[in-house]
Amino acid sequence: MEGERKRKTYDKEFKRDAVRLIVEEGRSVASVARDLGVNENSLHHWKKRMEEEGKDAFRGHGKLKVEDEELRRLRRELQIAKEERDILKKAIAFFAKHGK
Fold first, then answer.
1. What's CA 84's distance to the chain center, in Å?
2. CB 17 within 8 A of CB 57
3. CA spacing 20 to 30 A to 36: which of 19, 28, 30, 55?
4. Mean pLDDT throughout 76-87?
5. Whether this model's pTM surpasses 0.70
6. 1.20.1440, 1.10.3470, 1.10.10, 3.55.40: which CATH number matches 8-60?
7. What are the tens digits of pLDDT across the range 5-39?
8. CA–CA separation, 83 vs 86, rounded Å?
9. Domain residue extents for the chain
10. Tens of pLDDT along 32-43?
11. Nearest alpha-carbon partner for 59 in 72, 51, 49
12. Which residues contact 2 (CB under 8 A, 6 or more apart)?
């Protein structure tokens, strides 16, 4: 359709470099936004994410933080351990019932 705006996407290096200009070089958000052709609100959002998440910021879609990935792995291990426990309980009950 005519008049539709396509949303721009920026890679993580671009975002990190833009934030670096603000934080390390002391440039204003407005100045960096103007020079890079980026919306000021986007820069504020990127800066906030960098402050909160550090190296984990801008992972991309579907990629988990290190802590979330570990939590997923630990939940899976717990599920397997519970299944193994239930099998052993059934085996003990079977052998107790049917004797030696």
1. 31
2. no
3. 55
4. 96
5. no
6. 1.10.10
7. 777 888 888 998 999 999 999 999 999 999 999 99
8. 5
9. 8-60, 64-100
10. 999 999 999 999
11. 49
12. none
The encoded tokens of residue 60 equal 């991309």
First to last CA, the chain: 78
Give Cα separations from 51 to 8, 9, 24, 48, 57 (angstroms).
23, 21, 13, 5, 9
Pairwise CA distance, residues 84 & 74, whole Å:
15
- On the question of pLDDT at 1 being above 60, the answer is no
Determine the residue type at 81: A
What gap in Å lies between CA 15 and CA 20, rounded to an integer? Answer: 9
Which two tokens mark 70?
A: 């570990």
Residue 79: both structure tokens together: 């599920």
Give tens-digit pLDDT for 42-78: 999 999 988 888 777 777 666 667 777 889 899 999 9
